Predict the 3D structure of the following.
Amino acid sequence: MEADTVNVAGNITRSLAGSRPARKRSLAGIRPWTWFIIDYAIAYASATLAFTLTPYGLTEVAQEHVGQLGFSFGAALMVALIAHVAGLHELNQRKRSFGLLARCLFVSFIAVVLINAELLFVHYLTVGRLITIFTMLGCTAGLFTIRAVLFSVAERNTYVAALVGSADYIKHGLSFLGSDQPGAVEIISLDLGEHPDTDLREWAMANGVDQVVVDTDDPLSPTQNDLLKLVDGRLIVSRFTSFVENLYEKVPTQNITAQWVIDTQAEHESLYQSTMKRVFDVVIASIALVLSLPFVLIAAIAIKLESPGPVIFKQQRVGQYGQRFTMFKLRSMRSDAEKDGAQYAQEGDARVTRVGQFLRGSRIDEAPQLINVLAGHMSLVGPRPERPEFTDKLETNIRFFVHRLMVKPGITGWAQINADYAVSEEDSVNKLSYDLYYVKMLSFAMDVRILLRTISRFSAGAR
């Protein structure tokens, strides 16, 4: 049987015949913490090998030198953490050979510098130069090689996902997914409105499909019997919402239902979400507040010298379950910035002062929000707290917008590190898809991942 399918770019894709090959896996199946473990193992092996290959490693270790086990453990942990911060554990990490090699070298260099500094200034221990150099070179080679091999295999064995259903479902799905597919995934489609008599299993096998994606609420969605035949044919069958959550780590808001919200809320009774998250917030916020205090005092003096008005900017925000609270920030705009009413901040906003530009770029202006965290109004990680003036309109126009705050708002969050600052209703819809993903996936590991990624976002600044 031959069939024509349309990919994201609108081109006609190939038709394949023959028996069903072994099931392929996409790079999306390698989750961030799996990458973390892989990189830790690579760095640990590199550090251990560096000790073996150097004269220092073959002689009795002097008291002022670090031992092999301690250095290997510390270097491996540092490499894995820096790689995570640098984005080497994300689904959309860069695949260009030179850029990837440069990033791996950067991660390895920063990691060995930090571990050497920590050993010297904290433990008063030193590491041989050759061990440091060999560790850095081994880590760079290992990090680059494992990714180059996996990317090469994935590109030669493209993972094919097919949207099957009505023309409206396919149009919406292709529009939501866009043309940039992470993890070497190719998106094709089958309009059952135009081809109602198509044998779905035979069509999928002929076109090399690995996963069929449907929307069970779509009027032309395949029957349960047809979907079960696909499963028997060693195909993966998933709903569009699950497919997007797994591949893009966000939620297609137009495809979820009230049941999705109810099920997500029921999952929030875990120990971490109900108790440990608050303990984590208080401990980390207390430490961060003490460490940031000198910078806040210097910033306060600079604000006062540059322009008249209060140093601390107070503003009403909407918190968990719609409760309002007063959020604190260092003032980064003129004191009369909203004389004409509330408005979104824009790129190159003229209301921002010179000191304010630096404060926003370094995120120092957000340090007073740590007080909100200690007071229980906010969390370190969560959806961005919106202003009541904007929230009322967004809740009316955007479905499920109110449910992003089933959790406390945060200083940083999944939407903040994955999407630009919202300056329109369309931007708010996009950020909502990330917020709802966080609400569903909330966990200690997720919060740590976001906090680490936030470090790498500091240089991007804020509007």
The radius of gyration is 26 Å.
